[in-house]
Amino acid sequence: SIQRQSGTPVYDGSIEIIPKAEGLIIVNELFLEKYLTRVVPSEMPATYEKEALKAQAVCARTYAWKQIQEQRLHELEADVDDTVNFQVYGNMEPQKAATEAVRETEGQILCQNGEAVEAYYFSTSMGYTDTAEIWNVDDPSSYGYLKKACLNQADADIDLSDETAFSKYIKSSADGYDSDIRYY
Fold first, then answer.
1. How far is C-alpha 175 from the geometric centre of its chain's CA atoms?
2. Widest distance between CA atoms in the chain
3. Taking the CB of residue 64, how many other CB atoms lie within 10 A of it?
4. pLDDT tens column, 69-120
5. Please, are residues 182 and 123 in contact by the beta-carbon 8 Å criterion?
6. What does the pLDDT look like over 120-179, one tens digit per residue?
7. Residue 128 to residue 45: CA distance in whole angstroms
8. What confidence tens digit (pLDDT) does each residue in 35-55 have?
9. What burial letters (b/e) apply to 156-167, b meaning 16+ CB within 10 Å?
10. Closest of 122, 143, 119 to residue 133, by C-alpha
């Protein structure tokens, strides 16, 4: 859709319109580093600390690079989409701090054993990270670098392994690691 929550969309690069039987595909083509100057402040407020923005830039670059290499949207003649299904590309003016973070980490990606990792990240966690199983991957065991962890020390011993316990937890008024985020 051309409608965006940030108002009138602003795009760098070129726009390609591809007619398909189902309708039109609109592809915004631009260099990866330029793309990241829009992704980083879309995924994380540019007011966050510089090192956090740099970490986001490296994760976002790794994620995009992996999508490009694996050609997951080849049938749409694209590398990624601009939604939470991939990475949010907010179609807004770049923010100075985020752009600096992208420049200072230019070309850096996360690797394990010489291979780019699947750099999954999320906006809201309720204080928990998890293994690759939550991302619906074919072989979760091949993502050993994705570990389950609790960021809320007070909640470290809570068992969330069944629907009843999880439902009770999310309906509680817990004060968590990211409880000030609107999606918490």
1. 24
2. 54
3. 21
4. 988 888 888 888 777 777 887 767 789 999 999 999 999 999 988 889 888 7
5. no
6. 777 666 667 766 676 667 777 777 777 777 776 665 667 777 888 878 877 776 666 566
7. 21
8. 999 999 988 889 999 999 999
9. eebebeeeeeee
10. 143
Strand blocks (E) in the chain: 14-20, 23-29, 111-112, 115-116, 128-129, 149-150
Burial label for 147, CB within 10 Å (0-12, 13-18, 19+), is exposed
149 token code pair? 């962890």
Question: What are the tokens at 96?
Answer: 């100075």
Reading the block at residue 20, the tokens are 């398909």
Q: What backbone phi and psi angles, to 5 degrees, belong to 119? A: -85, 65
pLDDT of residue 150: 73
Q: Give the span between the Cα atoms of 142 and 50, in whole angstroms.
A: 31
The tokens describing 83, both together, are 């939604």
Structure tokens at 125: 């966690």
